[in-house]
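Annotated sample (chain length 395).
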Amino acid sequence: MPLDYEKHFLPAYDRAFPKRPRPNPDQRDAILHAGDALFLVAGPGSGKTTVLTLRILFKVLCGKVPPNAVLATTFTVKAAAELRSRILGWGFVLRDQLLADKTIGGADREWLQSVDVNQVTTGTLDSICREVLSQNRAPAEQPPVVVDEFLSNSVMLRSGLFGGGRYQDATLDAWLMQIAGSSGWGWNLGEKRRVLSSIWDRLQQDLTNVNSLSAKGALPATVKPILVAALSDYEKELTTNHWLDFGMLERQVLRDLQAGKLDSWAKRFQQVLVDEYQDTNLLQEQIYFEVARRTGAGLTVVGDDDQSLYRFRGAAVELFREFSTRLKTALKRTAKPVFLAINYRSTDPIIDFSDLFIRRDVDFQSERVAGKPRIVSPGKVPGLPILGIFGSGSV
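Output written by the structure step:
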């Protein structure tokens, strides 16, 4: 029988962290939610990492979800390290405090004594995909070598642009310049390569291809054969050397998941939790959906649509804003929305200024999750006033 949140988990939390406030009602709802999916919309400083950590630990310590049945990912290496540090640092302390509760006995105590939160799978999606392909390959098949940005850029120059003398092609040059919005000043070989690499990345991340661009009128017929040749030669050199860039890595994982080749890895998961979901691209979303589809795992996504910073890398805030609808369409699941709006990090002037700044942009409101409340503080937190100085020529 699962241990109780009020009777067991909260007292253990109080003893472990006497200086930390208890989870507020919204945070509590997120920690305890037991349905198919949770859509956690977290404002800045609202404790989303705390809630994500406590949700994982409550599931493991009190709900008896095996630690190796939990997959938790976030967007950056730094954030993934922070999440793992929090899970381990808090997990063992909470376990010890639960074991100190003499009312817990029998199978519950045996579970706590045996549980190892170090077995929770954490990391960026790229790092997890690399590990998955390395550990789930056919006998004698070479493990994937994921190339870094420097090498992938070099291959794009060598095969994509120098191949066939395409770097001198005026038609391709003019189109790439148009895509980049360049006036021609500072336009050079490095810029051509950068734009061409960006196009390749977006094709991978958006799960589309050159033919689709052409059909939508985004690619002139005169450019198509040159672009196809450039990207094909880039991909050919990578695959010939058994190399993958990050887009190819994630796309291969998605294909293998859909083909059932990774079932031995994926089907152990009962809970999938994704932090910084506002920076997710379509390819990554499909990987999360496919894991949830094939395993029946509960899916928790956490993010803040006001802090979507990686659109230049294919992130689409629309995926977060419309998560509930997209999940319903893809998996026939209903996601419970929970809003975290209490900011524990900033002073009142900063909170008020930030909220006013966001709401002054009328056009931006349609990009936000419907019904998102304003940011508030837990009480009066005085601070220096915010002073903005703008010159007459400012934009």
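Annotation: The CA atoms of residues 353 and 388 lie 10 Å apart.
Annotation: The mean pLDDT is 90.
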